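Take a look at the protein record below and flag anything odd:
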Amino acid sequence: MIKIRRADERGHADHGWLRTFHTFSFGEYQDPAQMQFRSLRVMNEDWVAPGRGFPTHPHRDMEIVTYLLEGQLEHQDSMGNGEVLNPGEFQRMSAGTGITHSEFNPSDLHPVHLYQIWLYPNRRGLPPSYEQKQFPREQRLNRFCLVASPTGEDGSLTIHQDARIYLAVLDPDARIDHAWSPGRHGWLQVLRGKVRLNPLVPTDGQVLNAGDGAAISDLPTLDIESISDSEVMLFDLD
């Protein structure tokens, strides 16, 4: 079963310095029918204006994943980390027993475009921790690249949840697939471009555009065909 969550159905807020879309309930956007999917709690697509950002704020007991599409994002936290994320970089922060952090667009000219994703951890009270890594485009081109997993396998970041996160950059007409073990579920988020799901089984509504997502359950394999230059993020969830 595939249930599509269209980009224009998401919650939206424009604060001037921040333009944001919420796949699931977040902040002032609250929809009881859109609270989470499995352990996936937050899927926010953000554009932060030049010279602006999120001031220091707290988190706890959450796995926070950030992926940068365009621009730069300066990160500082109470663990002593001070890093700048660039396009294609993936950041994982385990809030655990509690952290504070800030995120800032250091550019005077260009906005920053990012996805911030929260997953519930597999247990509360973990020690806070941080990882950041660049996954070269060639590792993600026309195939799924594992970027986060419970074990840190294949050079992926370690996420404290029974979840695996994959990224893929797709040329037009490229086809890739992902198979799920019995009882597993998936979420596909289209970051850029346009893709078709299960192209050999034509069904109305199976074309996804940038910002669209799809919840996947009781489906052994998902086939994806790119219609244009595209980028997707896939979650394999318990």
About this structure: Residues 177 and 223 are 4 Å apart (CA to CA). The radius of gyration is 17 Å. The chain has a mean pLDDT of 95.
